[in-house]
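Recall the central idea of this unit: under ordinary conditions, the amino acid sequence of a chain determines the structure it adopts. In this exercise we apply that idea directly, starting from the sequence alone.
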Amino acid sequence: MILLSFNITNNEKKFKNNFSIDDEKILEITVDNTEAILRILENHNILVSFFIEVSLAEKTQLLIKKIISKGHEIAFYNEFSTLLEIESAKIKTEKFTGKLIRGFRQQDAQFSESAIKSLGFNYISNIDNANILFPFKRLERSTEIIEKNGISIIPESISPYSQIPYNDFVFQIAPLTYYKNMVFETIKKDDFVLIYLNSWQFTDFDKFGFKIPFYRKYNYGRKMEDKLESFLSWINENELATSRVKDFIF
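Accordingly, the structure predicted from this sequence is:
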């Protein structure tokens, strides 16, 4: 099973010389990127999970409603919010959507399973920070879903033959043929492969003057859209099963 997911987060406010845009415009770019992803998914009739950054939940209500109307899952992704802020955002989002938010994603296990469980989440998707070196580390760890304190914990998926993780950076830089082979090998061995991308990877960095690390200056913006299109076409051509995370867990 392929579990495809997207983190909806704003671009970092780092700009090249003589460039600067305000928070409202940055949010508009995030929304535009997400809507481009939605169009691509609809073209291929694939449902996924969107992890909305907690601080954006109240600001993107129309977008969240659109995501839900297309049949996708809404979950939370936390960068810097406190437990109280997460709880407040969850209550408000569930109220205006009429949907329970079951999933929670965080980097480097910021909060304990018991703390996340206390807020009413049913599963945790912990991810690591992807910098220039991390994707090339050979990792050896369990990729099985475990239950702890009444909550399901989903680890990052790792390619069994290369030991490379399926983080956003690897999708961006790896040749698509190589990436497809990784996916094939993983779903032969494991029950699932969890893939995640970030909405900001679909930004035209040059157009808006965003300053990004040199190792991110490959296959961004429209090229990411094209690569996602090709990947989803391959999934459908090979009749590979896909699922929203919550459906697979429960």
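The two ends are 14 Å apart (CA to CA).
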